[in-house]
Design a protein that fits this description.
alpha/beta, 12 strands
Length: about 350
């Protein structure tokens, strides 16, 4: 990053009134062989995390990529700009934990300023978020997902192998105060751990603009996935309906009309400010409408979360490839994307990276 740009970031995240976000046409690079257009890019900013969640990281930890082999801020922005100029309209920052990066504000400002980008989102564990969020919002962060798998502090410490439950709750409240609406809360549901808290999580939506997102437990390397730990969408829905039908005022769940590319099944509950969603990756996959691509912290490009195939964009970038050459590499990878993932039992047997390497 040159000194002029660095000085600008150090003084202000204010954007010029002239900044515009006009649509860019979706190029052939982003269409796969099944006609799906990919306008959503998830960028992992780090393999490091300040938690050690059991479904994300093996107990023994993971081998981290040496820093020189990770994408630099300038490389991240260059690749992001290539995608956005080709038709990507939404970028989500993931990790690891993206907020542990010291340059997170600078990265957000540069990305949010890309012409054609409509949404800059982030998925975070919330541990260090509360103090950083006002400035991140100034720098263009427009959508927020906060991961929280339990409302019980002792269970949080057991699952994440760290303390910090109170800080995550403060982060959720801080996001609401800053006007994020909804604040999306991601909850991975696991049988015998937090499936007894589904009703309590739904209650969070009664008075607050929270979208609680129940996620089926998914297999990745090192997270000891077992089908008996999986609580399917149909069972989660039954729990919600049965518990709320005991309330006299309950009139049922109203299904929200979803975009064809939506990963979640979204519902309103009468009288609640927030909403409830179910992400059914295992039992009712949504591959037919998938519009997502992933850029990993080490510069590898991944077209499917559950597929083992990756191609490096870092190596040709550092070897002097121009934008057209990079587009050819990206387009070829997108064209090889399969119609759907292999199914949960085959996924569980297929070598893949730990989730912390891929990006949540």
């Amino acid at each position: 990053m040159d000194r002029t740009m660095s000085n600008m970031y150090a003084t202000s995240c204010e954007k010029s009134p002239a900044d515009t976000h006009k649509d860019n046409p979706v190029s052939d690079m982003l269409f796969d062989s099944f006609g799906r257009q990919h306008t959503y890019l998830r960028i992992s900013l780090s393999e490091r995390c300040n938690l050690r969640c059991q479904y994300c990281m093996p107990a023994e930890g993971v081998e981290l990529t040496p820093t020189p082999q990770l994408l630099s801020p300038n490389e991240i922005v260059r690749l992001a700009n290539l995608f956005v100029s080709s038709g990507v309209s939404k970028i989500r920052l993931t990790g690891g934990e993206p907020t542990i990066r010291k340059d997170i504000e600078e990265i957000c400002l540069q990305l949010s300023s890309l012409s054609g980008l409509k949404t800059l989102a982030m998925t975070t564990n919330g541990i260090t978020l509360a103090n950083k969020l006002p400035r991140l919002k100034e720098c263009g962060l427009s959508l927020l997902n906060i991961s929280l798998d339990t409302l019980v502090p002792a269970k949080f410490e057991f699952m994440s192998r760290r303390k910090g439950h109170d800080r995550v709750m403060k982060a959720i409240d801080a996001a609401i105060e800053l006007g994020y609406n909804p604040v999306k809360v991601n909850c991975v549901v696991m049988r015998g751990f937090n499936d007894d808290e589904i009703y309590d999580f739904v209650e969070l939506t009664r008075e607050k603009p929270i979208n609680i997102r129940f996620i089926e437990f998914m297999p990745f390397d090192g997270n000891v996935w077992k089908v008996k730990k999986l609580v399917p969408y149909s069972e989660m829905m039954d729990i919600v309906v049965k518990q709320f039908t005991q309330v006299k005022q309950f009139t049922g769940l109203e299904r929200i009309k979803d975009d064809p590319t939506e990963t979640a099944k979204n519902f309103r509950i009468d009288g609640h400010r927030g909403t409830v969603s179910f992400i059914t990756s295992m039992t009712e996959h949504f591959c037919a409408g998938c519009n997502r691509l992933r850029l990993l912290a080490d510069g590898n490009f991944k077209v499917c979360l559950f597929g083992p195939s990756e191609v490096s964009l870092r190596d040709p970038l550092r070897s002097g490839a121009d934008d057209n050459e990079l587009r050819e590499i990206i387009g070829a990878a997108v064209k090889r994307k399969k119609a759907s993932h292999a199914g949960m039992f085959d996924i569980a047997k297929t070598p893949n990276r730990p989730m912390i390497h891929i990006g949540g």
